[in-house]
Amino acid sequence: MKKPILLFVIIFCFTIIINNTVNAQWTQQNSGTVSDLYSVCFTDADHGIAVGINGLILKTDNGGQLWQNVTSATNNHLVTVCFPSSNIGYAAGFAGTIIKTINGGNNWTLLNSGTNSYINSLFFFNDSAGFAAGDNDLILYTDDGGTSWNPRNNGTNINQDIYKLFFVSSQIGYAAISENPYHGVLKTIDCGNSWVKDTIGFCMPFSIFFTDANTGFAVGSFNHIWKTVNGGQNWMGLDSSNGGTYYDLFFTNPCTGYVVGDQGMIVKTTDAGNTWQQETTNTTNSLMSVFFTDSLTAYVVGLNGIILKKGINTSSPNSAYPDNEFFIYPNPANENITIETPQKPSRWLFGEILNIEGQIIKNITVRETHSTIDISGFARGVYFVKVKNEKGVVVKKLIKE
């Protein structure tokens, strides 16, 4: 069974390299502030939120062309933001602060987290159910939209700090942790009720990202990038050949990923982490968070109010997308997904949904700007949506809850 999986990944990576013909640059946007920004999240191509120091919240409704300051429900630092849907969002940070919006970030209310510990990460499965994690061994879970938060014991000591959460399904998740003298990654297979630690060494992992159920990456201090191919049982070090501390990462497909960090550093891989190339950013500000709205468009935020955007056309992002580009939402999904094209395709887009082994599960056709696909009969796990026409092939990951 391993050979078909390996063959599919190799073909997929080669397809991505062939179709990645646009060498878009990182362009600085006008954030309107010199205050530090720590996290960014988008709900679609146009709508995004960035959060930062002293409760700072910035909002854009036009793909980053204009960022507006939104009144916050706190003056505490906000270091993480998460939107499980277009209207429902959460942000968290200093002194156990968690705030929530129900109207896309226009207004925020303060929630009672029940803790004073620093919250470093949020991860939500849907509008109601999700985790918060942070310093002093903190892991909290809510299933009522943040009205109540219940501690989840991770089985380690109180001196442990958790920097980032990432779940590949509703049951299986990972946490990047600092715990002297050996740092590592926690794993749960029962929705956070119990956790097992895998030690990765003396360097701290600050962020973590999985491209499928088995393959994941972590980044952290002293230029370290780690990779697992067996669901976190073992982590191997990768050499990016660049110095500094890395704070965040994002993969747009199993082969292509970006890492951001100190002194304006962004490094990119197109071969699943085997090699890394430095990107030109024209800034020396430390970069703290990266988020892709699709395979071609990304946002990075950092210190001194820096916001960078990468896209085909930063002034009008939809106008230059290729005819076969598409977006999937919600993702993760349970019953149905919507496949959206930025503009009505000049020709129908044909495609397939494949499982992790590369087997075709469903044939699809995208006829208009929005097409609804029923995935209710799919088993939980990671799938790939492949869309193709005479312009080429685009492949994206889909998670079935």
Task: Describe the SSE topology.
Elements (H helix, E strand, L loop, with lengths): L1 H18 L6 E3 L8 E6 L5 E5 L4 E4 L7 E2 L8 E5 L6 E5 L4 E4 L7 E3 L7 E6 L5 E5 L3 E5 L7 E2 L9 E7 L5 E6 L4 E6 L7 E6 L3 E6 L5 E5 L3 E5 L7 E4 L6 E6 L5 E5 L4 E4 L7 E2 L8 E6 L5 E5 L4 E4 L16 E3 L6 E5 L8 E7 L4 E7 L3 E5 L6 E9 L2 E9 L1
Antiparallel strand pairs: 1-28, 2-3, 3-4, 4-5, 6-7, 7-8, 8-9, 10-11, 11-12, 12-13, 14-15, 15-16, 16-17, 18-19, 19-20, 20-21, 22-23, 23-24, 24-25, 26-27, 27-28, 29-30, 30-33, 31-32, 31-34, 34-35
Describe the structure.
It is a single chain. The chain is mainly β. It folds into two domains: about 290 residues, YVTN repeat-like/Quinoprotein amine dehydrogenase (Methylamine Dehydrogenase, Chain H), CATH 2.130.10.10; about 70 residues, Sandwich (Immunoglobulin-like), CATH 2.60.40.3080. The chain has one helix and 35 strands. About 5% of the residues have low confidence.
Q: Which of globular, elongated, flat, extended, rod-shaped describes the shape?
A: globular
Return the CATH class of the largest domain.
Mainly Beta
The count of β-strands is: 35
Low-confidence stretches: 14-23, 313-321
Please state how the strands of the largest beta sheet are arranged side by side.
Answer: 1-28-27-26
β-sheet strand percentage: 35-45%
Structural class, judged by helices and strands?
mainly beta
Distance between the termini: 24 Å
CATH superfamily of the largest domain: YVTN repeat-like/Quinoprotein amine dehydrogenase
Structural domain count:
2
The percent range for helix content is: under 10%
Can you tell me the CATH architecture of the largest domain?
Answer: 7 Propeller
The largest sheet, given as strand count, sense and whether it forms a barrel, is:
4 strands, antiparallel
Average pLDDT over all residues? 85
Radius of gyration, in angstroms, nearest whole number: 20 Å
User: Counting H and I runs of at least 4 residues, what is the number of helices?
Assistant: 1
CATH fold type of the largest domain: Methylamine Dehydrogenase, Chain H
